[in-house]
Specification:
65% of the residues lie in helices and 0% in strands. It is elongated. It has helices at residues 5-12, 20-38, 43-47, 49-68, 83-103.
């Protein structure tokens, strides 16, 4: 997982440094949300380049949503986590289940 502040700012088309602290917090919050949604903090799982790139896309999408819809009180409809992020998380959950199966977790092996 390699989302940087610069990656997020390019995605959002933000040129100034005024919101850098806020954006860093959104990257951290999005990363934690995604890891908790998948159910792992296993570094080997996240080291796979295909997994890492999906996590990066989901992190940018979610952090961008946090930034764009950052108002806590609003007179308009609330926006849930976007469909792109949800679909990537669902795909990563399937990948994680396959990863655990390959490790033998579902075979009753308690050593993993």
């Amino acid at each position: 997982m390699t989302v940087t502040l610069d990656n997020l700012k390019v995605s959002l088309r933000v040129d100034s440094t005024a919101d850098d602290y806020l954006l860093k917090g959104y990257i951290l919050a999005a990363t934690n949300y995604i890891k908790n949604a998948i159910g792992t903090d296993d570094d080997k799982f996240y080291a796979d380049v295909n997994i890492s790139s999906l996590v990066d896309v989901a992190t940018i999408a979610l952090a961008s949503g946090y930034y764009t819809f950052r108002t806590s009180l609003s007179l308009v409809q609330a926006f849930p986590v976007d469909l792109a992020t949800n679909s990537i998380i669902a795909q990563l959950r399937g990948n994680y289940a396959d990863y655990l199966a390959d490790k033998g977790v579902f075979d009753g092996d308690k050593s993993t």
